[in-house]
Automatic annotation (TrEMBL):
It is an enzyme of class 5 (isomerase). Keywords: Isomerase, Metal-binding, NAD, NADP, Nucleotide-binding, Potassium. Its EC number is 5.1.99.6. Belongs to the NnrE/AIBP family. The lineage of its organism: Bacteria, Bacillati, Bacillota, Bacilli, Lactobacillales. Its cofactor is K(+). Catalyzes the epimerization of the S- and R-forms of NAD(P)HX, a damaged form of NAD(P)H that is a result of enzymatic or heat-dependent hydration. This is a prerequisite for the S-specific NAD(P)H-hydrate dehydratase to allow the repair of both epimers of NAD(P)HX. InterPro entries: YjeF_N_dom, YjeF_N_dom_sf, YJEFN_prot_NAXE-like. Binds 1 potassium ion per subunit. One of its GO terms (molecular function) is nucleotide binding. Residues 11-213 form the YjeF N-terminal domain. It comes from Furfurilactobacillus rossiae DSM 15814. It catalyses: (6R)-NADPHX = (6S)-NADPHX; (6R)-NADHX = (6S)-NADHX. K(+) binds at N61, D123, T159. This is NAD(P)H-hydrate epimerase.
Length: 218
């Protein structure tokens, strides 16, 4: 069976259809995404789980990462969340995930830690919707991740890799593995995608092309 590759716009449209038309809540999809990522981290031979750092943005990709941190914590894996940006300005779902993480006493830090202390890094900074080059503080974070010895799991897309064309948007996280949601992304099929995405796993989290649902119904 041929792999289906989609664009960022398609990914966002399929997400919106699943939530707004079918009625599956965003938090349910986020939990399923986090379960897929956590499962891959725990079962892959790529990752040393002695001390994990989840680097989370304030959008929903960051919310996925915060949920991954909780699932790893529940597996008795030491994990810290490095939150980039103002928590009060995070998406509603990411704020919810942070509140849940607080109940589990998972450390959430705002300042850059000593990256040498971590054996695995989870890139949950930006997802498929990145539309401009990464500069300033975020570029510094990407550089810090790439300079660390820890292997990296990227959620959906390595931060800085163009979803549609695989172009480097200022700078890019060099991922060891990527778990991308529902369908593979065009950017991951490019030379840059193969270089920076590493081993790609496509996770079925319950989001589908509406046209395929119509076909199944008929």
């Amino acid at each position: 069976m041929a792999t289906t590759y989609i664009t960022a716009a398609q990914s966002q449209a399929f997400d919106a259809y699943t939530m707004n038309q079918i009625g599956i809540p965003s938090m349910v999809l986020m939990e399923r995404a986090a379960l897929a990522v956590a499962h891959q981290i725990v079962n892959s031979t790529s990752f040393d789980l002695n001390n994990v750092l989840v680097v989370a943005g304030t959008g929903n990709n960051g919310g996925d990462g915060v949920a991954v941190a909780r699932l790893l914590h529940l597996n008795h894996i030491p994990v810290t969340i490095w939150l980039l940006g103002n928590r009060d300005h995070a998406s509603e779902q990411t704020q919810q995930q942070l509140t849940i993480a607080d109940h589990y006493n998972i450390p959430v830090i705002a300042d850059q830690p000593d990256m040498a202390n971590y054996t695995t890094v989870v890139d949950a900074i930006f997802g498929v919707g990145l539309s401009r080059d990464i500069t300033g503080k975020f570029a510094d974070v990407v550089d810090a991740i790439n300079a660390a010895k820890a292997n990296v799991m990227a959620i959906d897309m390595p931060t800085g890799l163009g979803t549609d064309d695989g172009q480097i948007m200022g700078t890019v996280v060099e991922a060891t593995e990527t778990v991308t949601m529902s369908y593979n992304k065009l950017g991951l099929a490019t030379d840059n995608g193969r270089r920076f995405g590493g081993i790609v796993t496509v996770a079925d989290i319950g989001i589908y092309d509406p046209a395929t649902l119509t076909e199944r119904k008929s």
